Amino acid sequence: MKKYLIPSFRLTLVLLVLLCVIYPLFIALVAKAAPGGGDGITVTYKGKIVGYENIGQAFKSDRYFQPRPSAAGYNAAGSGASNKGPTNPDYLKSVQSTIDTFMRHNPGINKADIPAELVTASGSGLDPDLSPEGAKIQVKRIAALRGIPEQDLMKLVDTHTEGPLLGLFGPPKVNVLKLNIALDELKQ
């Protein structure tokens, strides 16, 4: 018995030190070296922190580009998807309600032209980005409300479109918070 107990105890101690001390310290050091120092990358506007670069947030006014819907209410502490499948009646009602709301706020848009990302939540419920198409379909509404020519808003979306990571990984995207800050900076 002693033959097995002492090596087991030693292995337990080694793993405790490795997994409860060394590994967490390593991860904390890596996080401190990352942009934002492990606290997230804050976005400031006029000297105030207005949000985080990698966390989506709601914009209440139709004068702004709207992000993807959030199953978590844009709450980073409770991020997550709705966990409802594409055939779930409650999910289908929710998507239809979002489509109806989008069409009410964006008259003249055909239902078939609405990108799926504007009516379905992301897996985390906190996606800060839209596809360029998801932003451009909102241009007509914003141009009418702000009195800005549509071509100026299209240029703004193009300017804020980021290409795929390293030119290879992922689709082009537009950060909604940064786009809305640039929108506020345009002459109105």
Q: How does this structure look, described?
A:
With 188 residues, this protein is mostly helical. The protein has two domains: 1-39, no CATH class; 41-185, no CATH class. The protein has helices at 2-33, 89-105, 132-136, 139-146, 150-159, 176-185; strands at residues 42-45, 48-52, 129-130, 161-162, 173-175. β1 (42-45) and β2 (48-52) form a beta hairpin. The relative contact order is 0.12.
Number of strands: 5
> Could you tell me the mean pLDDT?
88
Tell me the strand percentage band.
5-15%
Order of strands in the sheet with the most strands? 3-5-4
Please state the overall shape, judged from the principal axes of the Cα atoms: elongated
Order of helices and strands: HEEHEHHHEEH
Q: How far is it from the N-terminal to the C-terminal residue, by CA?
A: 81 Å
- Enumerate how many helices there are, as a single number: 6
Low-pLDDT sequence parts: none
Radius of gyration: 23 Å
Please estimate the helix content.
40-55%
Number of domains: 2
Q: Supply the helix-strand structural class.
A: mainly alpha
Largest sheet entry: 3 strands, antiparallel
Question: Which characteristics define this entry?
Answer:
188 residues, two-stranded antiparallel ribbon, mainly alpha, single chain, 5 strands
List the helices and strands and how they pair.
Elements: H1 2-33, E1 42-45, E2 48-52, H2 89-105, E3 129-130, H3 132-136, H4 139-146, H5 150-159, E4 161-162, E5 173-175, H6 176-185
Antiparallel strand pairs: 1-2, 3-5, 4-5
